[in-house]
Amino acid sequence: MANPVGPLCNMDCEYCYYIEKTALYQQRKSFKMSEELLERFVESYIQSQTTPFIQFTWHGGESLLRGIDFYRKAIKFQQQYGRGREISNSIQTNGLLLNDEWCRFFKENRFLVGISIDGPEKMHDYYRKDCGGRGTFARVMRGIELLRKHEVDFNTLSVLHDYNVRYPVEVYRFFREIGSQYMQFSPIVERLGTRRDGLELLTATDQPDDSELASWSVDPVAYGQFYISVFKEWVKRDVGRYYVQLFDATLACLVGEQPGVCLYAKTCGHALAMEHNGD
In this structure, what DSSP letter does residue 271 have? Predict the structure, then answer.
């Protein structure tokens, strides 16, 4: 996974673990991955793969801030160094910058687009605001409509927090209605406290005396009930039509197949995430 703009984003979600990481690069004037580093990354990543199929994943911050020409060059380098191997691309975005040009590019190059959206408007806008403190739901939905217009494959990735976790059926039905066949729900559990580098969100190894659970963290019992309720709704008529990541991974484990997410596998390898500067 590559982050071509690091933690830069055109949104300011209250629960975001990544935005404050700009403070770790105080000497950098730009958070944009250079074209020279892009070429080195594409070449070395392809050469390191041991299977015929290669998947590139582009993430952020907001990945579209790097501009469409950057990804055009990524495709060119993939073709140059791929030597006929099958290569696919997926990209995660909040959808605010999507337009017809972006969607045509994604369609022509068979990108899978992940849209970050937390549910219906009142649940999405609860934490996912822009840098001016305004809700972003309407703009995200405009992006989804453009993807559908251009027949771009997309899925949805949703943060489960203390608010939307209370409305499982409403959330699930919303995603079904907007045409999200593939849904991912990620529970957020974060701790706040004093770090030596001045940041507030703690890592798993941070153990300050003032550590406390962030208010937006999802309650474990509510998290379990969310999936129980969604399953009861899904199993009635949506099996084979709509896909929920946790259900797919659980089924894969039950029948002895490799789950699509290594978190659910018996062994989980090291997943490389490369920063904008090559870290």
Answer: P
